[in-house]
Write a structure and sequence with these properties.
The chain is of the alpha/beta class and 419 residues long. The protein folds into two domains: 121 residues, Sandwich (Immunoglobulin-like); 272 residues, Rossmann fold (3-Layer(aba) Sandwich), CATH 3.40.50.1820. The strands form four sheets. Strands 9, 10, 11, 12, 13, 14, 15, 16 and 19 form a nine-stranded mixed sheet that branches. The chain has a four-stranded antiparallel sheet with strand order 1-2-6-5, with helices on one face. A four-stranded antiparallel sheet has the order 4-3-7-8. A hairpin with a 2-residue loop joins strand 1 and strand 2. It is globular and about 60 Å long.
Length: 419
């Protein structure tokens, strides 16, 4: 019944709203419009492979670039033929899929070789523009040259929700991989801008300043993303506090209390966010972790640096920090030389539970993709900022009674005999 109500609310909302570029794209695909060429190639050029799905309600437009005819397998079903967009290398398929879950997809060439694979969310109603809800403002790209990471340059953007008090001081949320939360990338992934504006309008989160930080690069060398994000140390937190936020504060007044500060990320960005909260709990007290890479990607024993697997053990053994943490992962997440993403996320969740942290862990079947995080974003942000009071500067977080009554997480084998 609840799903039916959500669907009816979603449908009514969409009927009242002005046509969105994603809806325009899907409507064009429905009638095989001549405009599809321009819409795919210019307006939404990110539809290529890994992020090659545009979603509007129950309509999923799968699109991929291929020099030969392409097919797509959805949720492990047999591959379906895709239509060719005349005058381009694009192939597409419009499909109606069930809401309330994520959907995996694999693109294939005519010879059977794989083009790309990923997972997409069936977004909740809060991930669509709602009538009468004002939109926030995204800044121009800003560039920093770091001293904390000598020689590194990085970019960042600032998104400000309507009503954020940037004169006296607004709450702030730091997002890693910020380049994926702007423009078309945000529409095809998290939809942070739309979701946060809608939640602000509903009074579920405070209007805030979102700082979207792109991983840096040292000229002539590869990106420093893994070094910044996966290294278990206090250095990245220092970079935010001593370099990024002071630059942000040249234009926006933000609050200084940890109670009013959150930090978020996915994959390596998630362990990065957790580490910043762990090493600087007096600066960041709310942490959002999607498909966290709590593994050995930057384990360097020759430099006495532990890998991310150590984080759960620190939580079990070190002094308890005043943190509120939302985590999500899935059983189809990565297994590699760096370790096991699913098992290490479960380890961290159990560590947080054993130490009575205010945490929430959602574990499903998703692969290493932002889909589950995107589908959960309205709920996770509301949970993370629940009971926020702008008149306060601190709060001692306590585990919810509902979580306290639940047992530790236990693992079972699902893809082969367990005995």
């Amino acid at each position: 019944m609840r799903k039916l109500v959500l669907l009816l609310v979603f449908t009514a909302t969409m009927l009242c709203a002005q046509k969105h570029p994603l809806q325009e794209l899907i409507d064009a695909a429905r009638v095989d419009s001549s405009q599809l060429k321009n819409l795919l190639g210019h307006d939404l050029p990110m539809l290529r492979g890994r992020d090659g799905v545009a979603v509007w309600g129950q309509d999923f437009l799968f699109a991929v670039e291929s020099e030969t005819p392409a097919t797509v397998s959805i949720d492990h079903e047999p591959p379906l033929e895709m239509k060719h967009v005349a005058g381009t290398n694009y192939y597409y398929l419009l499909k109606t899929l069930r809401m309330g879950r994520t959907h995996q997809y694999h693109y294939f060439r005519a010879d059977g070789s794989q083009i790309g694979a990923y997972e997409v969310a069936s977004y909740n109603p809060e991930a669509y523009p709602m009538p009468g809800v004002p939109r926030g403002k995204l800044s121009e790209m800003k560039m920093l040259t770091s001293q904390v990471y000598p020689g590194m340059t990085s970019n960042y953007w600032v998104y400000v929700n309507p009503g954020a008090d940037t004169t006296n001081g607004a709450p702030v949320m730091i997002w890693q991989d910020g380049e994926t939360i702007i423009g078309n990338q945000d529409l095809l992934r998290l939809r942070l801008q739309i979701v946060s504006d809608n939640l602000v309008a509903k009074g579920l989160i405070p209007p805030m300043v979102h700082v979207l930080i792109q991983p840096g690069q040292i000229p002539g060398e590869r990106r420093t993303r893994s070094i910044q994000y996966d290294t278990v140390s206090d250095v990245y937190g220092k970079y935010i506090l001593e370099e990024v936020l002071p630059d942000v504060e040249k234009s926006y007044k933000i609050r200084q209390d940890a109670y009013s500060r959150a930090i978020a990320g996915a994959s390596s960005g998630a362990i990065c966010a957790f580490n910043a909260g762990w090493y600087y709990p007096e600066q960041f007290s709310r942490v959002l972790s999607h498909i966290g890479s709590f593994t050995a990607l930057q384990w360097r024993p020759e430099e006495n640096l532990e890998g991310g697997y150590i984080v759960s053990h620190k939580v079990r053994r070190d002094e308890r920090k005043n943190l509120r943490v939302w985590m999500s992962d899935g059983s189809d997440d990565n297994e590699g030389r760096g370790g096991s993403w699913p098992l290490n996320n479960i380890e961290l969740a159990n560590a947080l539970k054993m130490r009575d942290y205010d945490f929430h862990f959602r574990f499903g079947t998703s692969m290493h993709a932002i889909a589950q995080g995107a589908m959960d974003l309205p709920e996770s942000l509301a949970w993370l900022w629940r009971d926020y009071d702008p008149s306060k500067t601190e709060q001692t977080y306590e585990m919810e009674a509902e979580e306290k009554a639940k047992p530790l997480f236990r693992v079972s084998i699902t893809n082969r005999e367990a005995w």
